[in-house]
Design goal:
single chain, TIM Barrel, DNA polymerase, domain 1, 5-stranded mixed beta sheet, 9 strands, 40% helix
Amino acid sequence: MVLEFAIFCYMATTDALHIDLHLHTIHSDGALTVEALLNLAASKKLSCVSITDHDTFAAYASAPQIAKSLGIELIPGIEISSVDKERDIHILGYFCDIQNAEFLAALEVQQGNRRERVRIILEKLRTLGIHITYEQVEQHCDGYIIGRPHIASAMCEAGVVSSYSAAFERYLKNGAPAYFPLTGLSPEAAISLIKKSGGLAVMAHPEYTNADELIPKLVEFGIAGIEVYNYKTTKNVNKYKNIAKKYGLIETGGSDYHEGVGLIGERDLPYSIVENLKNALNYSKLE
């Protein structure tokens, strides 16, 4: 059952409302607390948002109450880091039951995989003469989700690299000497978890993911939408609009806000996207 805080009504016309359905907090790899993020959303006059932290619902311990106090509609969300042939395929989930036991158990496994990946990357860095401890990396996250962004921050703090981007470019990106692929759920399993928890699955930032050949399979697995509007999808919006039309997918969007990467609310996305998601959700319950 989706929690009651997920949806509440607005009297204004939907044409005047704007949304952002892809936001991150310190509970994964964002820079802002839940409160700071939602206050920023309010300052941008957003009417509806979804916090989609990687592989965790931790933000929702406080987000519903804060959002309600700010008059912002909050849709329960998540970004699952699924893996297909060592490629990261990120699947967004909306309107999920954040208390679903099977979902939470799967997320615990995902989080364990992430911790093991960090340890392996740190060992690869040690072979390159770079000594960063797991404890140093932990200082840059809140303990829920740990990953390469936190390693990059620790490397900057230790003076190993001159910038966060340099850490990725020289050591951490795919193909770099300390890179190690993430292991985890398949896209099919991620979509299945989202659907079984009462939610809708959406393919995140397809231009950035660069796995268009996988889209027909994702449709077979039951994906409901594709993130056409994202700061990472700038050159091929029309391409993904056409793909959405071809497969009957909902066009969704968000900034993928972390900090300084994708400005929150920058795409001026209309509330009609949320209405389309709600209509699809209601239709799925009738099947």
